Amino acid sequence: MIDGREVIVIRSAKRKRTISADLVGGTLRLRVPLRMGKGHLEEHARAFQQKLRKKAAGRERSDEALMQRALELSKKHFDDAVRPVSVRWSDRQNTRWGSTTSSQGTIRLSSRLKEMPGWVQDGVLVHELAHLIEPGHGPAFRRLVERYPHTKESDAFLEGVSFAQRQMGQV
């Protein structure tokens, strides 16, 4: 624990000077040289935590930005034929990545997507936009969704996340 946050430290005899970090389920994972002292370790952990927080904050979209992105995707993939009334983040969506109320033209995306790459968020947005045209999941719907070139990758990414969460008992 560093500053009240869990940090996983992986020491390696092969590393002499380099340090790398990533986030795993919200936990900072540091790869450091075997002989790095505690003081240097804490210093690097704080620096990486700050850097990753800034990076995540820059990635995060507001509801307004999410609506703007939905309109951009509609223009690009649906010839501007889809105009949702609202698009917003939802903290209440814990089992679905997104939902659409086609009769009202509203789209909600799970706030869990905020931590994921933009192309995955876009995949869910395109899926929900397609529901404004085609409510079911039949062949016509699939053709609409496949207009987004990263649909298969986005679906695979989300299936992997869902699988991992089920294994950890989070969903």
Report on this model:
About 20% of the residues are buried. A hairpin with a 2-residue loop joins strand 2 (about 20-25) and strand 3 (about 25-35). Helices cover about 45% and strands about 20% of the residues. The chain has helices at about 40-60, 65-80, 120-130, 140-145, 150-165, and strands at about 5-10, 20-25, 25-35, 85-90, 100, 105-110. The strands form two sheets. Strands 1-3-2 form a three-stranded mixed sheet, with helices on one face. It has a three-stranded mixed sheet with strand order 4-6-5. The two termini are about 25 Å apart. With about 170 residues, it is α/β, with parallel strands linked by helices. It folds into two domains: about 5-60, no CATH class; about 65-165, 2-Layer Sandwich (Zincin-like), CATH 3.30.2010.10. GO terms for molecular function: hydrolase activity. Keywords: Hydrolase. InterPro entries: UTP_pyrophosphatase-like, YgjP-like_metallopeptidase.
